[in-house]
Amino acid sequence: MTPAHLHLILNHFTVVGSVFGFALLAWAMLRKSREAVMLSLICNVVIALISIPVYFTGEPASDQVAHLDGVAPDAIEEHEEAANFAFAAVECVGALALAGLLLFRTEPVPRWFLTITLVGALLSVGAVIYTADRGRRIRHTELGWLAPARLISVSVRRRSLGEYRCDLWPPPLSFGEPRRSSKSEVGRDLAEVLT
What we know:
Blueprint: H1 3-31, H2 34-56, H3 58-65, H4 73-103, H5 111-136, E1 153-160, E2 163-169, E3 180-182, H6 183-194
Antiparallel strand pairs: 1-2, 2-3
């Protein structure tokens, strides 16, 4: 398994787990349940631990894909900058949650402590989602028009004598039939697409 594979697999746990940890903490505060509060703090600690390999596989993953066609170097840089802040936010929330687990083992967790942790968790959710969006822009050609660095492949097939079919991928934003062109128009279409 390469660093890129590991990075892509684990980052989903960070994104979904951060949202879940925030929602669980908010729900626990509304219910005023000590068990639910402790569970949400444990969840936030686990997410902080999972985020460590996500963060540290990011640089090797970028080295692995930087030379590939369709990879936008600017998108890698934006993702790295966002990841620095998101990693710090998630780790701070994890440290707060761990402190809460250790300091308030036998007594109720103070409301002010939970509020600070909840605000930090909300901030980390926003940072993680923003970072994931920046990561999506590096190379996800399957998202078509959503990806800024669009890879365009052209497929030209002969359908009958003198008639060719030119298919573009990702397709233009029109939803009609694929364009059918004569042999001379295909060359012009290719020149337009490639420029």
